[in-house]
Amino acid sequence: MERLQKVLAHDGVASRRQSEKLIMSGRVRVNGTVVTELGTKVGVHDEILVDNVPVSTETPVYIMLYKPRGVISTANDDKGRQTVVDLLENVPQRVYPVGRLDYDTDGLLLLTNDGELANRLTHPKYEVEKTYIARVTGIPTNDTLRQLRQGMTIDGETYAPAKSKLLSVDDKKHTAIVQLVIHEGKNHQVKKMLSGVGYPVEKLKREQYGFLTLKGLNAGEARYLKPAEVQELKRLTGLA
């Protein structure tokens, strides 16, 4: 048995605090009865409705995918394009991506039906680091990398300091490989930060999410996270 607000958050209905507000406002029913007390506990066989819409209480699933370029980071696409969920095989639970990767970006993407963990992983408060490798036009200077480390404001949007490192250069092609580590997840953040200091991104890959890496996976492949990995993600976000 679990507390009702925890189940709602886990199933992605809302954050735990927002789920508590849903309960107290009388918008949640358990087995046909309106429940307004936060201490209420429910089990897997209880019927839960929010605004008369059933809430699924599926077994929690945690998956790591090596997303290829040209795949949409959503569960469904109204244009009929291939999505990250389409790449998963034999996963009966309804899962959705944690954050997103751009259509033309490949790399590590997490998918789950654990709404509470997903919310925390994407919240900048918990500072879960994401490591990106970018090929950029031009060769960044030390001063440029220092700007990235100090944080920046672009078109009124403020970006937190990022860890940056020049990995290699190609003088003939006038390109460079740069590593950028961020803990935010703003839209097109890495591309905007690098372009903002004068080095447009030609190719981008997310190589690491927290302590998780792509080791053992090829593009388009996925695997379930190990229990110890799930526990470590929860520890990083204050859920353990």
Automatic annotation (TrEMBL):
Pfam families: PseudoU_synth_2, S4. Its EC number is 5.4.99.-. SUPFAM superfamilies: Alpha-L RNA-binding motif (SSF55174), Pseudouridine synthase (SSF55120). Residues 2-63 form the RNA-binding S4 domain. GO terms for molecular function: RNA binding; rRNA pseudouridine synthase activity. GO terms for cellular component: cytosol. Keywords: Isomerase, RNA-binding. CDD domains: PseudoU_synth_RsuA_like, S4. GO terms for biological process: enzyme-directed rRNA pseudouridine synthesis. Belongs to the pseudouridine synthase RsuA family. This is Pseudouridine synthase. It comes from Levilactobacillus senmaizukei DSM 21775 = NBRC 103853.
